[in-house]
Amino acid sequence: MTAAEVVQIVAWLHANGVVYQVNGGWGVDALVGRQTRSHQDLDVFIDEDHEAEFMAWLTSRGYRVTEDWRPVRVQLSSHSGQVDVHAMRLDPAGNGVQQGLDGEVYLHPSEQRVTGLIDGQAVVVASAGRARELRRGYPMRAVDLHDLAVLDEL
């Protein structure tokens, strides 16, 4: 997944007024304002009211659903890479509320959304503290350890 592709995806989200948050490795790189590693995918949390429209737009660009773990995420893949779409319901305060596979509920607080830069373009990302929190609860991969080391530089 290239920075240029991420910027195009985020531009669509902005143009369509979607509340979103870039997470994962691209979120970390946006916090430091530069690409620190290659990325297989883009993790993006979006307002569930825009999920169908966003997925239709991605499909029009050649993406196809390759994994469907709703309500947690839907993975779409193309020659450009993968987009992991995480739908969240917005509560009255603007917090994202995401359902888990086994009835869990994950809260993505609006105050933990900050602005980062990808390829010089402003994007909404999780704060450094939230990015660390999102890396808990699963076995660490080499890319996760890299991202945590990058977060330690902030």
Q: Give the overall form.
A: globular
Helix content: 25-40%
Instruction: Please state the average pLDDT score.
Output: 96
Distance between the termini: 24 Å
Q: How many helix segments?
A: 5
> How many beta-strand elements?
9
Radius of gyration (CA) equals 14 Å
Low-confidence stretches: none
Main sheet record: 7 strands, mixed
Query: What's the order of the H and E elements?
Result: HEHEHEEEEEEEHH
Indicate the structural class. Answer: alpha+beta
Beta-strand percentage? Answer: 25-35%
Question: Which terms summarize this structure?
Answer:
two-stranded antiparallel sheet, globular, 154 residues, 7-stranded mixed beta sheet, alpha+beta, 34% strand
Task: Give the SSE map.
Elements: H1 3-15, E1 20-23, H2 24-32, E2 41-47, H3 51-60, E3 64-69, E4 73-78, E5 81-90, E6 96-99, E7 105-108, E8 113-118, E9 121-126, H4 128-133, H5 142-152
Parallel strand pairs: 2-5
Antiparallel strand pairs: 1-2, 3-4, 4-5, 5-6, 6-7, 8-9
Helix pairs in contact: 2-5
Protein name: Lincomycin resistance protein LmrB
